[in-house]
Amino acid sequence: MSYPQPPEFPNNGQQPQQPMGNQPPPNFGQPPAYGQPGGAPAYPQGPPQYQQPAYGQPPAYGQQAPYGQQGFGQQSFNQMPTDPSQAPLPGASMGQAMSRFFKKYATFSGRASRSEFWWVALAFMLISIIPQIMLYMGMSQAVKEISGQYGAYSFPEILELVAQGGSAFQTIEAAISSSGLYIAGSLILGLIGLVTFIPSLALSWRRLHDSNKSGAMIFLSLIPFVGSIIVLVFYLLPSDPAGQRFDAVR
């Protein structure tokens, strides 16, 4: 069956139009060709893809580290924040070591570096030299006073007489006790020991903490002969970061 043709209209200088129904469908969703103007730029479809950072590498800038994973530069163990004053001071000078020694007079928590410990030990050894000299001079003076009664004795012989006891011991003891130098030296040494007993014990306790040892290990020195040697070896050990477990929590 034939259909009638639509009437033709005169063309007044316009381009011919394509018949209805034969027009190609519009081109939607395709980006324009590279370098050609016109059209909106194409955007990637779907949610953006994020690349998982490689193991051992920090997350990209501006992104939060995955939950439960260790951040960059953090320690491998999770610990509560501690007081910075509890940390040891490696390479401390004698002045710094003495300052921390008296500031932490009775502080048994925290740690103390080897330099803190040995500078204090050296300082008090030097301080005790003067009263020890006074003690020796006082004993020598007492020996000279009794040498007329018992003859000329050397210092070891005097000690042997003291060990034997009897009248010689009483005479020597009385002579030494009456010496002003001996009395002054004894008082100074006793005062130094009284003032430094607690802070010295606390410093030794913290030094053991710094080597990741319990401070109670100091009581090993009570074992005859070998105990003091064992504790001395502990004092010589280097710092161990695991000793942070002995720091006081803020």
TrEMBL record:
Feature: compositional bias, Polar residues: 76-85
PANTHER family recorded: INNER MEMBRANE PROTEIN YHAH-RELATED (PTHR34980:SF2), INNER MEMBRANE PROTEIN-RELATED-RELATED (PTHR34980)
Superkingdom assignment: Bacteria
InterPro entries: DUF805
Keywords attached to this entry: Membrane, Transmembrane, Transmembrane helix
Chain segments carrying region Disordered: 1-92
Transmembrane segments: 117-137, 181-203, 215-237
Biased composition regions of type Low complexity, renumbered to the chain: 10-21, 30-75
Annotated Gene Ontology cellular component terms: plasma membrane
Protein name, per record: DUF805 domain-containing protein
